[in-house]
Design brief:
There is one protein chain. The protein has 135 residues and is an all-alpha fold.
Length: 135
């Protein structure tokens, strides 16, 4: 991994961390709580931020790697690729979870696809911009 990719990874992780907090907690927290499945006790009282940061860094790295492969080195290409990747990951993960666990509903799974596309699109725009710096 070169320095540009590493910087893009961190920048993407920061955008993901902030955007996910704003969208999933502040804006839609009540919606997702009201549309959770029948499982109980799955949410932690206090989030463990170390593991959230590790996850966001991994997703930022995934974005930087895929956008690098795709040569998406501007905000527009990064946003498009990020949104597509986010939607596909959400469909894959969300519907697998819907089919195997009681932690979500069909409604929340469908809304999550849109939210993931928007959040990953934002992060993809930043990652694309960072990958294109100095070219």
């Amino acid at each position: 991994m070169n320095t540009k990719c590493l910087i893009a990874t961190v920048a993407g992780a920061v955008v993901l961390f902030v955007a996910n907090y704003v969208v999933y907690d502040l804006l839609l927290g009540g919606f997702f709580e009201a549309n959770s499945g029948t499982a109980t006790g799955v949410m932690k009282e206090a989030p463990q931020f170390l593991w959230i940061v590790v996850g966001q860094l991994a997703m930022g790295g995934l974005l930087a790697t895929v956008l690098g492969w795709k040569d998406a080195t501007n905000m527009n290409d990064g946003a498009r690729a990020g949104a597509t990747l986010g939607a596909l990951l959400s469909v894959a993960y969300g519907f697998t979870m819907l089919g195997t666990m009681n932690v979500s509903t069909l409604t929340s799974s469908v809304v999550d696809i849109v939210v993931a596309a928007v959040v990953m699109g934002l992060a993809g725009a930043v990652v694309g911009m960072m990958l294109g710096r100095g070219d």
